[in-house]
Amino acid sequence: MKRRAVLQSFGAVVLSLGAAEIAFGASLVAVRVWPAEDYTRVTLESDTVLSVKHFLTDNPRRLVIDIDGLELSPALRELVGKVRADDPYIAGIRVGQNQPRVVRLVMDLKQATAPQLFTLEPVAAYQHRLVFDLHPVTEADPLLALIQEK
């Protein structure tokens, strides 16, 4: 009889919780891709700080990002469509649920890059942001670029 009382109490507690209390991990608020001539910036904005591991592969060139405590969501799937064809660094992005509570992003790269990873604290309307800046390994030579334009 004691077990039944405990289970009923537990059930009442679970039913009194809202969706926010039952949900685990982070929720993405927005995803952004900003390509520029010098570098491309990818930003993941979430309601909590994201825990991330990343590595590069050479053949083929890819940046692989594992985000812990996250479930695959429609906001994250939007990232795939945000890559423009004229982006100088990213050829495409794939997302998938790598393990339970771990989402994997794979960025196919057009050239060798030196990614810089950093986080930004919430400010004004923005929440926690995880930022990847993809810089070229070798800087563009402005004189060579001028000659190629002519």
Integer average pLDDT: 83
**Total number of β-strand segments?**
8
Largest sheet: 4 strands, antiparallel
Number of helices: 4
Question: Rough shape?
Answer: elongated
Question: Which class best fits the helix and strand makeup?
Answer: alpha+beta
Radius of gyration: 21 Å
Distance between the termini: 88 Å
The succession of helices and strands, N to C, reads HHEEEEHEEEEH
Low-confidence stretches: 10-23
The strand order across the widest sheet is 1-2-8-7
Share of β-strand residues: 35-45%
Q: Tell me the helix content.
A: 10-25%
What does this entry look like structurally?
There is one protein chain. With 150 residues, the protein is an alpha+beta fold. The protein is 23% helix and 43% strand. It contains 4 helices and 8 strands. The strands form 2 sheets. A 4-stranded antiparallel sheet has the order 1-2-8-7. It has a 4-stranded antiparallel sheet with strand order 3-4-6-5, covered by helices on one side. A hairpin with a 7-residue loop joins strand 7 (113-120) and strand 8 (128-136). It is elongated, with a radius of gyration of 21 Å. The model is unreliable at 10-23 (pLDDT under 50).
